[in-house]
Specification:
With 1506 residues, the protein is mostly helical. The chain contains 72 helices and two strands. The radius of gyration is 44 Å and the shape is globular.
Length: 1506
């Protein structure tokens, strides 16, 4: 041994031994048990540490490769299991401090070389040292080394984040560990000045840079996921904790205060005291201003850091008495931003747009902290501090308004915060604010528009509350009248601002609103109108002023009979001024003759827009005031009788009657200018025309000719622009209508007023409206995704809104015309070769010579009384003609389907049809005439039966097309006119046509039978057949004949029988086979249900229909057998097969001979059929565990097993129910079976288990239960650290309903078996430990209800069934029950508005259960008398903490009264003496109420009880 020891040690120390051999020897010595070296581990650690230190001290000259191997050896030793075991056993092993210095130097080299190669091993060593307490002492004992390490690691992390390389996990894991160690040491240090020095001297700059880079990094997929999602956030939190504890300790506040406050204030507080040498604010500022990173990053890092530092400062020191210190800290940190240089006269161009955004965001965060912390007290600042804060904020506001940045959202938010602090900060510069942030601000992007609206809304609200709205709009008017910065200013009122204006106007006094309006009218009269001619700038100002007038007049409170008369009089005078002072001069200006080239001048167009907008506003307001206020007299009352003047009868329509003194010729000139462009003028003309229609309709006798002219004018006005099909969204502001937004505004006006327009427009115009509606809907379907994100109005949204509204079906003529246009559109999609064939069904369904809607149009026609009989006869003839045409079309569809002459469609045509079918689905089918419903049915039937897809078409697209057609046919069948189709078609013909077309189409689908779309298609096909067959039976007309024809057709369809026999799969069509099986199954199902519902009197009909089904069943069996033979191995059974076999089995088992089938094999359930079912059962069991989450297979498979397991005799060979249980267990253990999947098939699973367990033997039952229990590890479920701890169970609501509630129900069910089954009392007492683990707080009400009921049932089961256990476990019982009481008190506390009544009922039910338990304890459990005082004490202690809802309190109080019945006088004295003061008062109140109400009532009852 001595030789071994001396040899190894000498060789390690010897200069003759090569380093390769030394390393091998050291490794051998560490792992070998034969090397008995005293204190071997410490010796080897010292050797490798000394070697590395000597190399870095230049005492040794080693190759880089040897150095790396030495680091690797050290790393292996530190992380070895041997070292960890030795340390755990208590052995003392340590490292020298010099190795920590070497590690730091190595990391420092990596920082300076800006390369992170070959430092992975060093980082591993650091990680191992820091995570091992006995080794970590080399850093924790010398804090300077740990600070240096942390600084170097931060710098390395910054280099990695700044590079283009992917971010790895190793460095950040070590960094996070180092932060944790430093924070531990930092908390233990007692000298705050030293900690401050460490942080500011070494850590502040790298930490702030690291935090910034972690925050702004654009993470990629190449970056480590753990760093991206967890470590980055954790390190940012650690940096904040480090800065908070290092820079802002409570002991440092005096230094901050001394440095920040003016000298005179400090001297008042600290007379004669010496100034502190520590200048913390100056130190922090110096750190921020020094160049600790690249110049391009520096500004952004500082901007991101000042708000963090200020937040940490406020978290530490913000108290009411320190607010002035907090303000000065704010001003000093603001001084670190580059924005502060602008206050000192710096150049604006020194900041780029990105810099502006960063700086303003930092300022916004600082101001938000000031506002939220209530730093600025206006009165205190004025009285105590001579408005120091106010002066600072004023300079800040001036700087922001001088250097306007309307393209940056944070600029608006900063101004809003300043106004929130004190509106007087901005008030002296109100004109600049209005100009730069509102009137002249170009904030067109959504990200800037919203903060701008928020700012202006705040201004509105502030000046409205201060009753200074007139002053605000005086400034608005001043800004409007200034020369515009750009030729076209943005609109003054957006939709959001209009809403806010309306809110403010409703709160303001009427006189203030009238003051504002008078001001605008006066300015318009005196300054703008005289200078408008020939001046584009003045015309824009005029438009702006008039848009404000329009906004005010439309959003102010209307006059009514309670409005004071002076206000009414002022309003009358105002409208008269507008009419005489603005409208008339402008009309005169527009009436002047112009040359053609002058008519396109901007000033003339804007003057026209303004004039007509003001005319419309004036007319609308004047009419409204006249209707709503009896005291109001219109300034143009003398023309009230002019509405029905002969002007309308002269062949044209005029609005000149609105304006007195205006000649017809002059009005035509105005209209000529207005109609020459798609502009606000044109839209206002439409509005005025509509207003005229309303006024005519309000007359006793309406002028129909005038109404028709008006309606035609409105539609004609926008016809040319709508036909172009180009439009843009519109925000609802009339003043901003342009060429592209005009179509949207026009369509909005037409659709909004269809109920007024429709009775007075011609049939051609109705077709035009229907056509526009269809075209815009087709665009809407194409642009659906983009429309959802667009907040403005668009033509597509308007049309969709009309389709979804209940108004369209009421407008029958438009509804029916729209259907005709839709059918025409269907026909235009047909291939060009087929489009012109007049005998095609689609072409015939919109033939112009057929009176499709005569039933609707007839009442609208003027009938001569003498010709009524002949007209009536004509109407009947026309109706007969339309039905004859429909019959002809129907026969054509059937004939084409039988002859197999379909139209071939390309993929683009299929897509077009799908879009049209989507529109078709929006129609309210029940609102159509029977003939129109039949047309719809024939269109869909024609698409199904008379078309086929080209070979190149997408098969999935074709499946979707067929599914949609079948779905819409079902919708028609469910409507009230479902029977109308049978006027033109036999039911069997419809079924044959559909089946034939689907068999033809199925040839395409052989390779898509496993996709979900195929299963959806089959479902739609089955649903259509089921509904249609049900309809045939319910009609009770030719039921047998239709079914016979259909069944004979089905039986004649024998796809692939020959192929199966010959083993030739070339012509095999599995899709057609599934369709046929689905049809057989549906037919059997519908007819069987019908037979079961037949009364005994009609048994003959039942026999007839049963006989009809026999060939169907035989054919079904043959198809199933062939399908099973042809099914590809290792592939799930086709979806259609399982319901078919289930239906067959049900039919066989329902036969009366069923019970004797085993004794009589030749009975109804024949031996070959038994074999079929058994083979199918075996196939299902094989496939069930592999089905994954395929519900379309699982649900029907479980339904089959339910029927099969109901007859145990069917099991093949020696198989039993255990095999089914085993298969279900394997299925449920599959990871793909999620909670959602189990919930989806819960009903089917339950039914299988019911049949399985109900029909098995006792031995099989025990075996199945063992299978279940093997998969149920309850102990593991409860001990899952991440899922089922009490607090985390509340945060994962899925676990409550899935795990907690079922376990409680199971425990309660077991406990109810009683002492006869649960013999061991310990097993019963285990229930209490379960109850104490279950959470009862922070649950959703639905989960709370389930958990509460579960816990209550467990306790009640113990009370009722295990009284002996209860005597010994009374404290546990009371503890569990008290948790229920506390939870009810918490949930049932007074919360103001209780909200949902159903939810409150749940809480009341829980309170009632508590009352019942109290009552039961008092009545049945005499041994609990000793605990009564304890229960009362618990109750009143909790009651003192909450204010209960009266209804909940009633239940709980009634319950505790019964416990008080058990208390004797000694208990009451004990409670009065021992309860705390506040609780004692609650108990006294409770006891007094008990004596007054409950005890008196009880004694009264006892008095009269026998």
């Amino acid at each position: 041994m001595a030789a071994i020891y001396s040899g190894i040690y000498l060789k390690l120390k010897s200069a003759k031994t090569s380093w390769e051999d030394k390393l091998k020897l050291a490794r051998f010595a560490w792992i070998s048990h034969q090397c008995f070296l005293p204190n071997k581990e410490q010796v080897l650690l010292d050797w490798v540490s000394h070697t590395l230190v000597s190399n870095y001290n230049k005492k040794l000259e080693l190759d880089d490769e040897v150095v790396e191997k030495l680091w690797t050896y050290l790393d292996d030793v530190i992380h070895s299991r041997r070292l960890q075991d030795l340390l755990k056993s208590g052995k003392t092993i340590g490292l020298s401090f010099s190795i920590a210095q070497v590690i730091n130097e190595r990391l420092s080299e990596a920082c300076s070389q800006k390369t992170q190669q070959n430092i992975g091993t060093v980082l591993n060593c650091s990680s191992g040292i820091l995570s091992t307490p006995s080794l970590c002492i080399i850093y924790t004992a010398k804090c300077e080394l740990l600070v240096d390490l942390l600084s170097k690691l931060c710098k390395l992390a910054c280099q990695q984040l700044s590079s283009d390389n992917a971010v790895g996990c190793q460095l950040f894991s070590v960094l996070q560990l180092t932060f944790a160690q430093y924070l531990l040491i930092q908390r233990q240090q007692t000298n705050p000045n030293r900690v401050f020095g460490q942080v500011t001297g070494h850590l502040l700059q790298p930490c702030l840079l690291l935090r910034h880079l972690l925050t702004v990094r654009a993470w990629t997929q190449a970056d480590d996921n753990h760093v991206r999602q967890h470590l980055s956030r954790e390190i940012r939190n650690q940096i904040e904790t480090l800065l908070q504890a290092g820079l802002f300790q409570a002991e440092l506040f005096s230094s901050y205060k001394e440095e920040l406050l003016p000298e005179q204030e400090v001297q008042e507080k600290k007379k004669g005291a010496f100034k502190s040498l520590l200048l913390p604010v100056n130190t922090v500022q110096t750190n921020l201003s020094s160049d600790f990173c690249e110049l391009a990053l520096h500004g952004a890092v500082v901007a991101g850091s000042v708000s963090l530092l200020y937040k940490l400062f406020l978290d530490s020191y913000c108290k009411a008495e320190n607010h002035f210190v907090c303000f000065h800290m704010f001003s000093r940190l603001f001084g670190c931003l580059r924005l502060s240089d602008l206050q000192q006269g710096g150049r604006e161009d020194m900041l780029s747009p990105v810099d502006w955004s960063t700086e303003l965001l930092a300022l916004e965060q600082l101001l938000s902290l000031v506002l939220s912390s209530d730093i600025y007290n206006v009165a205190s600042d004025r009285i105590r501090h001579k408005e120091v804060q106010f002066g600072f904020y004023r300079k800040l506001a001036q700087m922001l308004l001088t250097h306007s940045q309307a393209s940056i959202p944070a600029w608006f938010r900063c101004l809003k915060l300043l106004i929130s602090l004190n509106h007087l900060i901005v008030d002296p510069d109100l004109d600049d604010l209005v100009s730069s942030a509102w009137i002249d601000a170009e904030a067109s992007e959504p990200r800037t528009k919203k903060p701008q609206e928020t700012l202006i809304s705040t201004v509105f609200q502030t000046y409205s509350k201060l009753r200074q709205f007139p002053r605000l709009f005086e400034e608005v008017l001043t800004v409007i009248c200034r020369p515009a910065v750009d030729e076209l200013r943005p609109p003054i009122f957006s939709a959001g601002l209009t809403v806010k204006l309306r809110e403010c106007l409703l709160e303001l006094p009427s006189n203030q609103i009238l003051d504002i309006l008078c001001l605008f009218v006066e300015k318009c009269q005196t300054l703008i109108i005289p200078a408008v001619e020939g001046s584009a700038d003045t015309s824009l100002k005029l438009m702006a002023v008039c848009s404000v007038l329009h906004a005010f007049l439309f959003n102010m409170r209307s006059l009514d009979d309670v409005t004071p008369f002076p206000v009414v009089l002022r309003t009358q005078n105002l409208l008269a001024k507008i009419q005489k002072g603005i409208i008339q001069p402008l009309m005169e200006l527009l009436q002047a003759p112009r040359r053609e080239e002058e008519k396109s001048d901007l000033w003339l167009r804007k003057a026209s827009d303004t004039t007509l907008l003001l005319v419309y506003t004036w007319v609308e307001v004047d009419t409204l005031f006249g209707v709503s206020c009896s005291k109001y007299v219109s300034p143009t009352a003398e023309i009230a009788g002019a509405v029905t003047e002969p002007a309308a009868r002269q062949g044209h329509f005029s609005i000149s009657a609105f304006l007195p003194g205006l000649r017809e010729q002059s009005w035509e000139r105005v209209m000529e200018i207005a109609n020459s462009f798609a502009s606000p003028s044109k839209y206002c003309l439409e509005l005025l025309t509509l207003q005229k229609m309303k006024m005519i309709l309000m007359q006793a006798k309406a002028d129909l000719q005038a109404l028709r002219h008006a309606a035609a004018f409105i539609l004609e006005s926008g016809r040319s622009t709508m036909s172009r099909g180009e439009s843009e969204p519109w925000d609802g502001d009339i003043s901003v209508i342009s060429d592209l937004t005009y179509p949207t505004a026009h369509w909005h006006l037409v659709v909004s007023n269809l109920t007024i327009l429709l009775p007075y427009i011609s049939l051609e115009d109705v077709e035009y409206v229907a056509n526009v509606l269809l075209e815009t809907l087709m665009l809407a379907k194409a642009q659906e995704a983009a429309m959802d994100q667009e907040p403005s109005i668009s033509t597509e949204k308007i049309s969709l809104g009309l389709m979804h509204s209940s108004f369209l079906p009421e407008m029958k003529i438009l509804h029916c015309t729209f259907l005709t246009r839709l059918i025409i559109k269907f026909s235009t999609v047909l291939p060009t070769a087929n489009r012109d064939l007049v005998d095609l069904p689609l072409q015939q369904l919109f033939a112009s010579n057929i009176p499709w809607h005569e039933e609707i149009l007839a009442p609208c026609k003027t009938l001569d009384l003498l010709e009524v009989p002949s007209e009536t006869k004509l109407l009947k003839d026309e109706l007969s003609l339309s039905w004859k045409t429909l019959e002809k079309v129907a026969q054509c569809i059937v004939l084409l389907a039988k002859n197999g002459c379909p139209v071939t469609l390309k993929e683009s045509q299929l897509e077009s049809y799908l879009g049209l079918l989507d529109i078709f689905s929006l129609l309210k089918l029940d609102s159509f005439l029977p003939s129109d419903c039949t047309r719809c049915f024939l269109v869909l039937l024609s698409l199904l039966a008379n078309t086929r897809a080209s070979v190149s078409c997408s098969k999935l697209l074709l499946l979707k097309f067929l599914s949609t057609c079948l779905h819409l046919l079902r919708c028609l069948q469910a409507g009230r006119n479902a029977n109308s189709v049978f006027k033109v078609l036999h039911a069997s013909d419809v079924l044959e046509a559909v089946m034939t077309s689907q068999f033809t189409a199925s040839k395409f689908f052989s390779d898509v039978l496993t996709v979900p779309l195929w299963a959806q298609y089959l479902q739609e096909f089955q649903a259509f057949l089921e509904d249609f067959l049900q309809l045939i039976i319910e009609r009770r007309q030719s039921v047998r004949l239709n079914l016979e024809k259909f069944i004979s057709f089905l039986v004649s369809c024998k796809p692939d029988t020959g192929a199966a026999k010959s083993k030739d799969r070339k012509n095999w069509n599995p899709a057609a086979e599934q369709l046929l099986l689905t049809t057989f199954t549906t037919l059997c199902h519908v007819v069987t249900l019908y037979l079961q519902q037949l009364p005994e009197k009609k048994l003959h009909s039942a026999d007839v229909l049963s006989a009809l089904l026999e060939p169907v069943v035989l054919q079904m069996v043959r198809t199933v057998e062939h399908g099973l033979q042809s099914n590809t191995p290792n592939q799930l059974l086709p979806v259609a097969f399982i319901p078919s076999v289930t239906t067959l089995l049900k039919a066989d088992l329902s036969h009366p001979v069923r019970r004797g089938w085993q004794k009589e094999p030749s009975g109804f359930l024949e031996q070959p059929r038994i074999k079929l079912y058994q083979e199918f059962y075996s196939q299902i069991l094989r496939e069930l565990p592999c089905a994954g989450h395929n519900l379309q297979f699982l649900q029907p498979a479980l339904q089959f097993l339910t029927v099969f397991c109901s007859v145990p005799e069917l099991y093949p060979g020696k198989e039993t129910a255990i095999m089914v249980g085993f298969a279900i267990k394997k299925l449920l253990s599959d990871p793909a079976i999620t909670t959602q999947v189990i919930q989806s098939m819960e009903m089917e699973l339950t039914e299988v288990l019911v049949q399985l367990l109900g029909n098995c033997s006792v031995e099989e039952f025990y075996a199945i239960m063992r299978l279940v229990l093997q998969g149920l590890e309850l102990r593991n479920v409860w001990q899952q650290k991440a899922k089922m701890q009490t607090k985390e169970a509340c945060q994962d609501p899925s676990l409550i309903s899935i795990i907690v509630v079922p376990i409680l129900e199971t425990v309660a069910a077991l406990l109810r078996q009683g002492e006869g089954v649960l013999v061991n009392p310990h097993h019963v007492s285990l229930a209490f430990s379960i109850l104490l683990t279950i959470p009862l707080d922070h649950l959703k009400l639905q989960d709370y209800s389930g958990v509460f009921l579960g816990v209550h049932e467990v306790l009640f089961s113990i009370v009722q069934c295990h009284p002996k256990v209860l005597l010994k476990a009374a404290p546990s019982f009371l503890n569990s029950f008290h948790r229920l009481v506390v939870s009810v008190m918490h949930e049932g506390r007074q919360k103001g508005d209780r909200g949902n009544t159903d939810e409150f009922e749940v809480i009341l039910q829980c309170a009632h259960l508590v009352e019942r338990m109290y009552t039961h304890i008092a009545a049945e459990m005499e041994n609990f008398t000793v605990f009564s005082a304890f229960m009362v004490a618990q109750y009143v202690t909790e009651l003192q903490k909450v204010t209960l809802h009266p209804a909940v309190k009633t239940h709980l109080t009634e319950g505790i009264y019964h416990i008080l019945d058990l208390c004797i006088e000694r208990d009451i004295k004990f409670l009065n003496a021992s309860l705390p003061a506040g609780v004692r008062e609650v108990f006294k109140d409770l006891y007094n109420d008990y004596n007054h109400y409950h005890k008196a009532k009880k004694q009264g009852e006892e008095k009269y009880t026998a």
